[in-house]
Amino acid sequence: MNEFVEECRSEWKRLGVPDPVAGEMAADLAADLEEAEAEGASAEDVLGTGAFDARSFAAAWAAERGVVRRPRSGLPRRSRVPAAIATFALIIAIVGAVLVIAASPAAPRVSAFPAAPPNVALTRVAPTPAPTDGAIAVWVVAPEDLLGDTLPTNDSGVDTRTVGSVLLIVGLAGFVPLTLFWLWVGSGSRPRRRPAY
Amino acid sequence: MAVGEGRRSQLLRGVLDLCLLAVMEEGPAYGYEMTKRLRARGLSIVGEGSIYPLLGRLEREGLVETHRAASDGGPPRKYYRPSREGRRALAAGIAEWRAARDALDGVLGLAEAEVAP
Q1: Which residues contact B33 (CB under 8 A, 6 or more apart)?
Q2: Which residues pair with B66 in a beta bridge?
Q3: Rg (chain B; Cα; Å)
Q4: Cα B11 to the chain's mean position, in Å?
Q5: Distance in angstroms (rounded) separating the CA atoms of residues B53 and B31
């Protein structure tokens, strides 16, 4: 029976039940079990079905007494707002970096577009004849033409491809801690299983 | 678990807190002592779960008062007795139980008469 009490003790410790309270519960339980044993009664006579699962029994008792330390519930809603903004900014940065790299002079210049060409200077390299309506043709197009003045140029001497690559690496590296953060927040707000007794 | 045992278990779960309040109303009692009092009245908790979580809930809800005192030849025990609020809850629970029992007797008593030879 001591083994049962010890198992309860370790469960209370795991649940964060304060030591004095756990000690009191363990002492009461041990005294009751000893008295029952002395009278020839079994643990089941004292604990009912709880005698078969010490951990569930201990968890149920502590929960009903209200002495289980509150589970970590992640960050409060107010603290999640900056994290959400950071995530959004990170996504924008990564998308922007990809576009910058794609638009840099060293990037491949072949893209596929619907038969109706975009409103930029294009050179069709597909073999003649021209595609019929609804068909797909391959056009050679410079990304700078597509994105117009929104992309940086090399006029200042800055290597936009390098800048884009650095941004992309930083952005992707930032995704790891952010993913861990959101996983942590998610696991903290998950409802806990209530033990049966 | 047989159908009859499962029903008995469910019925008892609904009123076990009242039973505990009732036996401790006779006089302050510690956990195992309450089990013995219940058993003396023909109510075994074997298979019904433990009374300890229920005692914990009654304590948390302020329906019982507790104190520590030496037991007969044993270590100090935690004694429970109904608080004022607990006695009120017991009275209300007994009234509910009697009303439910009478209504069920009205239904099940008739059914029993119909199947009697």
Answers
A1: B77
A2: B80
A3: 17
A4: 11
A5: 11
* Chain A residues with beta carbon closer than 8 angstroms to that of B74: 31, 34-35
pLDDT tens readout for residues A44-101? 888 887 888 999 999 999 999 999 986 555 555 666 777 777 777 778 778 877 887 7
Cis ω for the linkage preceding A71 (within 30 of 0): no
Do A66 and B53 count as a contact with CB atoms less than 8 A apart? no
Q: Whose structure tokens read 């709880």? A: A50
Find where tokens 């499962």 sit: B6
- Strands B76-82 and A136-140, by their bridges, are unpaired
Instruction: Please tell me if residue A190 touches chain B, with a CB cutoff of 8 Å.
Output: no
Q: Tell me whether residue A87 is exposed, middle or buried, using C-beta atoms within 10 angstroms of its C-beta: 0 to 12, 13 to 18, 19 or more.
A: middle
User: Would you say A144 and A151 are in contact if contact means Cβ atoms under 8 Å apart?
Assistant: yes
- The pLDDT tens digits of the residues spanning B70-114 come to 877 778 899 999 999 999 999 999 999 999 999 999 998 888 766
Nearest to B48 by CA among B76, B10, B78: B10
Cβ A49–B75 below 8 Å, yes or no?
no
Residue corresponding to tokens 């020839």: A40
Q: What is the DSSP letter of B73?
A: T
pTM: 0.59
**DSSP letters for chain A:** -HHHHHHHHHHHHHHT--HHHHHHHHHHHHHHHHHHHHTT--HHHHHGGGGG-HHHHHHHHHHHHT-SPPPP--S-HHHHHHHHHHHHHHHHHHHHHHHHHHHSTTS--EEEEESS--SS--EE-SPSSPPPTT-EEEEE--HHHHHGGGS--STTS--HHHHHHHHHHHHHHHHHHHHHHHHHHHHHTSPPPPPP-
* Cα gap B80→B59, rounded to integer Å: 9
Say how far apart CA B45 and CA A44 lie, in whole Å. Answer: 9
